[in-house]
Design brief:
Layout lengths: L1 H17 L8 E5 L5 H9 L4 E4 L2 H10 L7 E4 L8 H7 L2 E5 L2 H13 L4 E7 L15 H8 L5 E8 L7 H21 L7 E3 L6 H6 L4 E4 L1 H4 L4
Parallel strand pairs: 1-2, 1-8, 2-3, 3-4, 4-5, 5-6, 6-7
Helix pairs in contact: 4-5
Pyridoxal-5'-phosphate binds next to strand 8 and helix 9.
Length: about 230
Amino acid sequence: MCERLEEIKKRVSRACERSGRDPAVVTIVAVSKKKPAEMIRKLYNCGHRVFGENYVQEGIEKIGALSDLNDITWHFIGHLQRNKAKLAVLHFHWVQTVDSVRLARALNRHAAEQGKILNTLVQVNIGKEESKYGLMPEEVPEFLKAVSSFSHIKIRGLMTIHPFSVSKEESRTWFRQMAELRDNLSRAFPRIDLSELSMGMSNDFDVAIEEGATIVRIGTALFGPRD
Ligand SMILES: *Cc1c(COP(=O)(O)O)cnc(C)c1O
């Protein structure tokens, strides 16, 4: 498992070199959904500290089982229902999938109650697919206006699960659209921090980095296939 991690770090570095970026700005989120806590522990022992889970209950069980590893940063990357917002705030450091003002409001309220500031990303449905969650690109400005006064969630940028693509070059077109959207929003909302772009998975993370990703979410390439 350490070898896989080292190989991925190398690919991240090479993608950064190709695009003239500093590898230090790219975070690898190890996506551990459907994998046991012991596999997370193994990757931790290789030196990795950032993990992502898709399901609140499954995530909480593993976070509990690994509570001795107290320097892990946990990202929630699945669809979050509002009635699970409190638990998500309690156990996760980041929620990458904020896709409505109502969810943002619930997270903000629970973070305030728990005396925390939650890191969040705005999930964008860049391919405008029926089957996917996330705000439509044109809905993001209104969302940002509505949440700009929420003091216990910190918007850090945008996240997307791009449409299934048969090639890396096809993925690239979606990554480009995300980077462009982010750049336009940054100009329109100079006081909101949109520096993070979470995009790219096992199949195409190097292309995502070439197009500006600062967070890549990698499951299969680290942990092997899920059943
Ligand atoms: C499962 C998942 C990933 C990881 O996908 P791989 O192809 O296994 O790397 C990344 N992001 C999200 C939101 C996921 O659900």
